[in-house]
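Thanks for the sequence, V.! I ran YbaK/EbsC family protein right away. Repeating your input here for the record:
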Amino acid sequence: MRAPLGDFDHARPALDCVDLLTPPVADAVRGGAGDVPPDELIFVDTDPEIADTAAFVAHYGAGLMESSANCVVVAAKRGGDTTLVACVVPSGARVDVNGVVRKRLGARKASFASMETATGLTGMEYGGITPVGLPADWPLLIDAAVAGTPWVLVGSGRRRGKLILPGKALAALPGAEVVDGLGV
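Predicted structure:
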């Protein structure tokens, strides 16, 4: 199988690779992503030592910068309550935490969740967090540019490997909301 983007040596249907995924991601892959059937989700094996965006793009193809997205976990606080939200933005952008996210959630304060919180509550590795398989009760904010990408590369739940799926599939995940200007 050839990946629809990038220069990957090993691309396979994600269903054939559930043993390489974290349990919550594997469960989500088995169920598909929104209206995209499970057999349209692609797994590409990658070197975990170059999982960070700049090194990854330099190794697997410069065109990936426009087609890849990062998923980060943000903690939004209001009064004594904390809401965790996942935000997906193009790899070359930053999440507008104190503007768009804070206002969208009606929070007094918003900041990136600690590594322990993000990994502990998602069951995923730091540097590999993906919108596929997040806790179903979390809000999931997706930048409109990502949702409009024909094929988008996201984490796989681990630093090794990535998932490729249509951008529209991310918009159909549980709790997803497409937001203009989420990435700045």
